[in-house]
Amino acid sequence: xxxxxxxxxxxxxxxxxxxxxxxxxxxxxxxxxxxxxxxxxxxxxxxxxxxxxxxxxxxxxxxxxxxxxxxxxxxxxxxxxxxxxxxxxxxxxxxxxxxxxxxxxxxxxxxxxxxxxxxxxxxxxxxxxxxxxxxxxxxxxxxxxxxxxxxxxxxxxxxxxxxxxxxxxxxxxxxxxxxxxxxxxxxxxxxxxxxxxxxxxxxxxxxxxxxxxxxxxxxxxxxxxxxxxxxxxxxxxxxxxxxxxxxxxxxxxxxxxxxxxxxxxxxxxxxxxxxxxxxxxxxxxxxxxxxxxxxxxxxxxxxxxxxxxxxxxxxxxxxxxxxxxxxxxxxxxxxxxxxxxxxxxxxxxxxxxxxxxx
Length: 358
Description:
Helix 2 (57-70) crosses helix 4. This protein has helices at residues 45-50, 57-70, 78-85, 89-101, 117-126, 134-139, 141-157, 165-175, 181-193, 199-211, 217-240, 249-261, 266-275, 284-296, 302-331, 338-356; strands at 4-5, 27-29, 74-77, 105-107, 112-114. The relative contact order is 0.05. The radius of gyration is 42 Å and the shape is rod-shaped. A hairpin with a 4-residue loop joins strand 4 (105-107) and strand 5 (112-114). The chain has 16 helices and 5 strands. The longest helix is centred in the C-terminal third of the chain and has 30 residues, at 302-331. With 358 residues, the protein is mainly alpha-helical. The chain is 61% helix and 4% strand. The strands form 2 sheets. The protein has a 3-stranded antiparallel β-sheet with strand order 1-3-2. A two-stranded antiparallel sheet has the order 4-5.
């Protein structure tokens, strides 16, 4: 039986190399989802710099010919290769094995895929901890687990075509931020559900989680609980203030500070909201000043705040009464009897006479 070759666009399942039949296998040569213009056969420069000097001449002929015929998507038989290249069958078999071992082609159930050498080089450049030698990977359990994690993320969220720059980012989020695997998976899932699985957004979320001291899934669950609490409080505050259109970004930042930094619950914040009813057009800045004053006074509960306000009200009332009493004493006219009044008149006449030299 004659042997044929087929190259698929994207490998979904890896072909079991040990499952070989005695007969020939059909193979089809196609380019890896590339559309060539004007029938040119293009070879990336990285091939000449990294692979050419290590490749035997016969293997080079096989590789170049595979790239050439992949443009036309035709099935070829091994005998066709031997005739076209003037090479024996053994040389063709050894050449295919060499190309596969050096990741220039990838075996699939349908045949082979021609490796995109530019993408492969980028992966090696941005995956210093993953794309190491096979011996090192076998010795390092951590690297093996990381490879499995990256493969899971690639297959789950990128359909197996994750860009090369993601690899260095994943390394950073694991090493610099100290995320465990479950946190990283949740990070990708969180951004994916928000339809925002791009590097800038993922980086912002990752940085926020790092600032919140998230390291493991327990930390993350606690963080989500707090975030849900803040979200509910934002809605409640907007409703109580009659903000049908919602709150601005700056107003929400105030609430986040009250909850996350000051650790205040809604019962404390509601006391401040009620005080705004006594002021016209009370702003969030006024609310923030009131709540910050309570925080600076180390008031932690609604009971402590209420007790403080009652004492302050009593103090203000006492000060008002004192001011009234002082004012009355300063401006109250003195009352004189007839004897005292005659004495003042006489003294006044005596003072005036002395001054006139009488």
